Amino acid sequence: MGLLRIWIALVLAGLQGLSVAQTYPDRPISLVVGFPPGGGAEGVARLISEALGRELQQPVIHDYKPGAGTSIAAAFAARAAPDGYTLYLSTGGHYGADKVLYKGVTYSGASFTPIAGLVRSPLIVAVNTASGIESTEELLARARADPRQIFYASSGAGVPTHLAGLLLVNASGVRMTHVPYKGGALAVQAVAAGDAQVTFATPPSVLPLAKTGKVRMIAVTSRERSPLFPDLPAVAEAGVPDYDYTYGLGLYGPANLPRAIVDRIAAATLKILSDPELRAKLAAGGNEPAPSANASEFARWAEADGKRQKELTQQAGAAIQ
Predict the structure, then answer these.
(1) Using omega within 30 degrees of 0 as the cis cutoff, is the peptide bond preceding 66 cis?
(2) Strand, coil or helix: what is 252?
(3) In this structure, are 138 and 110 located in the same domain?
(4) Which single residue of 66, 125, 158, 227 could bond 101 by disulfide (Cβ 3.0 to 4.6 Å)?
(5) Is the pLDDT of residue 3 over 70?
(6) CA-to-CA distance for 244 and 310, rounded, in angstroms?
(7) Going by DSSP bridges, is the β-strand pair 215-220/86-90 parallel, antiparallel, or unpaired?
(8) How far apart are CA 202 and CA 186, in angstroms?
(9) What confidence category does residue 145 fall into, taking pLDDT thresholds of 50, 70 and 90?
(10) Is the dihedral of CA 305, 288, 42, 154 positive or negative?
(11) Residue 15 lies in a domain
């Protein structure tokens, strides 16, 4: 009798999941973003939300919640109802790096449901044009000669634009002072104004000011030159052979998101990322489309990336704030 009840419960749960998948979504979806408008995440969020909204036939609305790295947005997304109407655009920082950096973080990777990969990209090392620095070698030489005068701007503590700088400090042995800003656009503007000497920026954040000559792009943070920016050398070419940093963005939901909804969103995301027009727009902004075949594949990548970010943060000696 007990086995019969369990079997009936499983059948009913499966039917309920099927029903949810058939009706989802029936109202607008909120996309939580932990960065302010104007940075790299905003460009990806805008393109993805427009395409995903068309595919799901419901608006996907941005909900910007910047601050404390991305931990404010992550905490909000983790507390949301697992109904598919709150999605979270993020790297893998919520898999452990946030706990290293911030007191009071109660969420972990288990607080989220990985859904789909979106893009991956190197960051771009950019300096003030008037600084006279034209290469990573010159940046490192300047830092060794007078480390108190080299400040690197980021979009917040614990985010990729911070971790990339930490990695260079750790790998090269130079000293640079971190200055967090409330967004990637503000960090690049600080370099353009001379308030900071260098930034490790997302391509969408830095390209506009680079095109006007206000900042100079000197390298990419990937192990090798990127096909997106073939004329820029890799940091590793400057005598830092172990240096390699790329970041990825994907879609997450709260924990316990029904599998039927996960599969619905994952399939829709895979479909829109196969569109040549969308892929071209993402690439134009310096983002390489990186769709996952399914949610399980993305979950494996997210866990590995989150572990890497956590280890990097610990190795670099980042302090809890």
Answers:
(1) no
(2) strand
(3) no
(4) 158
(5) no
(6) 15
(7) unpaired
(8) 12
(9) very high
(10) positive
(11) no
Residue 270, φ and ψ in degrees, nearest 5: -60, -40
**Is a pLDDT exceeding 70 seen at residue 7?**
no
Residue that the structure tokens 């310096």 belong to: 286
The number of residues making up the chain comes to: 321
Domains: count for the chain: 2
Q: Give the single-character DSSP code of 62.
A: E
Tell me the one-letter amino acid at 207: L
| Start-to-end C-alpha separation, the chain | 55
Is 312:279 a contact under the CB 8 Å cutoff? no
Pick the last residue of a domain from 210, 238, 266.
Answer: 238
- Please give the biggest Cα pair distance in the chain: 80
**Rounded to the nearest 5 degrees, what angle is found at the Cα of 288, between the Cα atoms of 228 and 299?**
150
With beta carbons less than 8 A apart as the criterion, state whether 68 and 41 touch.
Answer: no
**Domain interval for residue 291:** 26-120+247-315
**How many CB atoms are closer than 10 A to CB 297?**
15
> pTM to 2 decimals?
0.81
* Spatial CB neighbours of 10, under 8 Å, sequence gap ≥ 6: none
Same domain, yes or no: 157 and 193: yes
Note whether 126 and 217 are within 8 A (CB): yes
| 213 lies in the same domain as 147 | yes
Residue 165 token pair: 């700088």
Residue 219 forms beta bridges with which residues? 125
**CB-based burial of residue 126 (10 Å sphere; 0-12 exposed, 13-18 middle, 19+ buried)?**
buried
User: Where is 194: in which H helix or E strand?
Assistant: none
